[in-house]
Amino acid sequence: MSLSLTVSIAKSLLMARFKQTMVAAVGVTFSITMFIGLLSFMSGLNSLLDGLILNRTPHIRLYNEVQPSKIQPIDRFNEFHESHNFVNSVKPKSSKLEIYNFGAIYQALQKDERVLGVSPKITCQVFYNVGASDLTGSISGIDVEAENKLFSFSEYVVAGNLFDLKNTSNSIILGKGVAEKMLANIGDVIQVTTSKGELVQLKVVGFFQSGLKDLDNVQSYASIETTQKLLGVANSYITDIQIKLHDITLAPAIAKEYREIFEVEALDIQTANSQFETGSFIRTLISYTVGITLLIVAGFGIYNILNMMIYDKMDSIAILKATGFSGKDVNRIFITIALSIGFIGGFFGLVFGFTMSALIDQIPFNTEALPTIKTYPINYNPNFYIIGGIFSLITTYFAGYFPSRKASKIDPVIIIRGK
Amino acid sequence: MKNKILEAKKIVKYFHDPMTIKVLNDIEFSINQGEFISIIGRSGCGKSTLLYILSTMDTDYEGELIIDGVSMSGKKEGDLAKVRNEKIGFVFQFHYLLNEFNVLKNVMLPGLKLGKFSAKEVEHRAYEKLKMLGIENEALKLPNQLSGGQKQRVAIARSLINDPLIIMGDEPTGNLDKKNSEVVFNIFQQLAEEYNQSLLIVTHDNEFAAKTNRIIEMEDGKIIRM
Predict the structure, then answer these.
(1) pLDDT in the model for residue B1
(2) Which residues in chain A have Cβ-Cβ distances shorter than 8 Å to B119?
(3) Which of A14, A319, A410 to mutate to test the interface with B (most CBs of B within 10 A)?
(4) Which domain, by its residues, includes B130?
(5) What is the predicted ipTM?
(6) Residue B172: is the preceding peptide bond cis (ω within 30°)?
């Protein structure tokens, strides 16, 4: 049977039950709208929350750790190779946190094609002195330009100028929490005590807010040179090398490689932040589940309406069969009806879904924790629209499948004789 | 020698619900091209049942049915639908027009399904059939705007659209008043005489039957006169 005939019969049957068809289509539209809206919003939120940590976390971090040596002298003794040994009270050897041979490692990393960028860092424990009390804190010495390029540092500097850190010697960008406790303003000079007991005065050039309150209460930033001065070490002293890769998925493998080549600890982002991936995954799963549930409910609506239509049109189906339409033709007509409901409903659903996302995107959303966000986050991923569209067709197909099969099995003799 | 267009060989049919009853018993007869035949008999004698078997819609029987030289035994539902579409025109007691379509489209549907002619040609042919039956002016009306007699004439036009081998009717005048019954009968007669159309009509209107070429009378599932 030609397609145009199928379509024209399907259309006539649809128009005969226009109101119910509309209700069914609106059901699909509603569910697709919610599906798109929900997923766009959820996934926007996901990338926002992930970005909160992941964008600021290096893909690989190279560092040294104070830890007991894995090889004890007895292990090197060949005579006892076949034996077990027990060594009590093993203590860490006095090793430095400094990365040895930083210059050579840095150059090797710069040459590695898989690496997007490298940013050295020093961590330094200090006390902020406020009158009579001391606040524990931590100052990170950073390469301002590299840090900004790799970790969008400037986005979190809420007041002052980031580059003053580099241009002004003995300057500091204070964490927002620290600054509030110290009542410090930009241009003020504050005093910190280093771990070696020295008192150092630093000029405040900006404030920094990460959105993580605990971090903002302790963390401040200074340039590498200033931090080296605080610690009283040579200008080759670096405790951390932060690496960003072109492809984040390679991080665990490359971390392992660097651990062996450079003989340092290497931590990859997947190991360090596995809980964020789990969180994102669960949120995405929930939004898909809700969206698909809505669609299935709409599918039941279509199923009902088609069933009613088949009871209603029993005579018409019987006569179509009597005049030479096969069960397959009848089946195709009802599947066409179901799919057109799905297509029209789905199409408007995608349009409204986009509109809804665009509207949510305009709603102001200001929060202390997220200084860079002004409106609700929305992710306009075309995949959501493709999935939504395909799913609306699949659901309506299955909703139409059983009623259509029932229609195709109607025995014309029973209907016609029954009159 | 005349052309056999339909042949029934030892057709036996049972009803199983509520209990097994033999409703048709060894039905054996044939129809030649151009014959105008009526089947008569009391209610429940199995004449409608026979007609539905002959029309290929009922496939639950024993025996053999041959239409246009081809046995219908073992054919699939889709193939039987094709046979109905191409070779059999059906007129029922009730008109069974589709209310969603206008008269013209109703007549055209089996023709469009056959797909032998383009939509335009089918439309032209449908107009001709309607004209032949004197209802071309109603072509664009919906079925529920027509009178009972007009509806039945549309149903006849629909049965004619694919130039079928045979037209089968199940009490086509059963729902009509005397005047309209006569109109319908005259149409059938005209078809038989002028167009050499074969017709097989089930009726219990003896007056109607008397005017046909050949009468098959049934009683208790058997043919007693033909």
Answers:
(1) 43
(2) 4
(3) A319
(4) 35-60+71-225
(5) 0.85
(6) no
